[in-house]
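FAQ

Q: What does a record look like?
A: Structure on top, sequence underneath. For example:
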């Protein structure tokens, strides 16, 4: 078996090992592969592993030996799944490897906006505290989470963990979910999208990106949100209309936007959100703790092993 990793750098910039993969065939790891080079790099591959490299119908047609595509992520929209299945190619993903890390980043964004830790750390570094007349200072709202309403779109592994921690902070938790109300844990109430928008002090997005959720949060729906509310997106950039979010921040309707994702990654320098002082971004790193990446690589190797042994797992 020829195994080719087409964009391995993000998952493993050098602090982990691909070595166990060599037990199942010859291994070539490319840190990055531009779209124009995908076919050239993978032409002799029986197995390819990808993170953000797109594997389209056109690419698949030019890889006659291809039998297996392993996605180094939970989301698998980079692969033409329907056509891969038509060609008899097995596709697998890495489910739930980063749940704890993404939940942690979700609350890092929530707490940064409500407590402004980054801002005050920088002000102290600039000696504002040292020169202050009083023992303390603040010039932004400081907000307790207890008693506030947390709205969650999507109650998969990540959304459910966010709900649980929200409850531990003393928040009232409502959710938009396909799950029946009867199966939801105590303290999580199901509602409609319109209802969720109208009651949430903090709205956090944890749904997959589909045709129905593309620009789920747009200008019209932002107006349904409470004035002074907070929007958090650690899901996919395309879940929001970024221009509309920028306008809501500009007008003050939104207090803050915290996101680990953007529609275009890396973002264009003229993205209107980058000009908003109350938009806070991390560069798509919620999944990237060493612990989560260690799990990712381990499951990716196990997926290949299962395929080679004739019983594929984590198929999509």
């Amino acid at each position: 078996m020829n195994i080719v990793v087409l964009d391995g750098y993000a998952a493993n910039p050098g602090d982990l090992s691909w070595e166990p993969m060599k037990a199942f065939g010859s291994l070539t790891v490319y840190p990055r592969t531009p779209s124009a080079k995908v076919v050239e790099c993978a032409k002799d591959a029986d197995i390819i592993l990808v993170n953000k490299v797109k594997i389209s119908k056109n690419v698949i047609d030019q890889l006659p030996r291809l039998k297996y595509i392993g996605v180094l992520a939970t989301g698998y929209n980079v692969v033409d799944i329907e056509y891969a299945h038509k060609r008899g190619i097995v596709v697998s993903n890495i489910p739930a490897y980063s749940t704890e890390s993404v939940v942690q980043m979700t609350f890092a964004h929530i707490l940064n906006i409500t407590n402004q830790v980054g801002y005050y750390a920088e002000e102290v570094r600039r000696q504002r505290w040292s020169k202050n007349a009083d023992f303390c200072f603040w010039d932004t709202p400081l907000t307790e989470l207890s008693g506030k309403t947390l709205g969650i779109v999507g109650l998969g592994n990540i959304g459910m963990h966010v709900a649980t921690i929200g409850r531990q902070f003393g928040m009232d938790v409502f959710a938009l979910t396909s799950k029946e109300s009867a199966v939801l844990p105590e303290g999580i109430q199901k509602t409609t999208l319109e209802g969720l928008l109208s009651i949430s002090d903090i709205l956090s997005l944890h749904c997959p990106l589909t045709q129905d959720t593309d620009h789920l949060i747009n200008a019209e729906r932002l107006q349904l949100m409470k004035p002074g509310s907070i929007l958090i997106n650690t899901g996919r950039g395309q879940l929001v209309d970024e221009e509309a979010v920028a306008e809501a921040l500009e007008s003050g309707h939104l207090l803050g936007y915290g996101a680990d994702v953007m529609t275009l990654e890396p973002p264009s320098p003229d993205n209107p959100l980058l000009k908003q002082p109350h938009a806070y971004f991390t560069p798509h790193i919620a999944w990237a703790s060493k612990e989560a990446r260690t799990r990712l690589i381990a499951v990716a190797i196990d997926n290949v092993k299962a395929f080679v042994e004739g019983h594929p797992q984590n198929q999509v």
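Q: Is there anything notable about this one?
A: The CA atoms of residues 236 and 261 lie 6 Å apart.
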